[in-house]
Design a protein that fits this description.
By secondary structure, the protein is an alpha+beta fold. The chain has a single domain, classed as Thiol Ester Dehydrase, Chain A (Roll), CATH 3.10.129. The chain is built from 4 helices and 8 strands, in the order H-H-E-E-E-E-H-H-E-E-E-E. The strands form 2 sheets. The protein has a 6-stranded antiparallel β-sheet with strand order 1-2-6-7-8-5, covered by helices on one side. The longest helix has 23 residues. The chain is elongated.
Length: 156
């Protein structure tokens, strides 16, 4: 019997948004969830003085870059896990998803983080029973690719 088609309902989108908005660190950075879909996650944030790593040139801190790639990747892994575990009861699914965490994150810094606004995107490469692999990118407001990441997430 084929699995039912997965749909990102308004209720599910709000649950994922709420989950990420309740993380204090995400609020410090100022991450906004722009799009949640089974195909892609988009998040953005504005440059502010607290996020600068190179104060002479006003460049985004590398830790912020990796953190945002990780947050976007985690959101994509969460959506993949929702889809993968849709056959479970709500309580069992939430129990499994509460264990979501980063196992590994590789970041390639390609260019300095210059700009007023940054957009992170993430796509699911693979979602298994317990582990998901996600590819994330960070672009500046002029479209420049700043960094890419590949994350492995425990999701079940």
């Amino acid at each position: 019997m084929p699995e039912p088609t997965f749909e990102m309902t308004d209720e599910l989108q709000q649950a994922v948004r709420s989950f990420f908005q309740r993380i204090p660190f995400n609020n410090v950075i100022g991450i906004e969830v722009d799009q949640l879909a089974p195909e892609q996650v988009l998040m953005s944030f504005a440059m502010k003085d607290e996020l600068i790593g190179n104060f002479i040139h006003g460049i985004l801190h590398g830790g912020v870059i990796s953190s945002v790639l990780d947050v976007a990747g985690g959101a994509m892994a969460l959506i993949g896990a929702f889809e993968r575990h849709q056959h479970l009861s709500s309580s069992e699914r939430m129990n499994r998803l509460s264990k979501l965490g980063t196992i590994d994150l590789r970041v390639d810094y390609l260019r300095p983080g210059r700009g007023q606004r940054f957009v992170a995107s993430a796509v699911l490469l693979r979602s298994g029973n317990k582990v998901a692999v996600v590819r994330s990118e960070l672009h500046s407001d002029d479209g420049t690719l700043i960094a890419v990441g590949t994350g492995t997430y425990l999701c079940g």
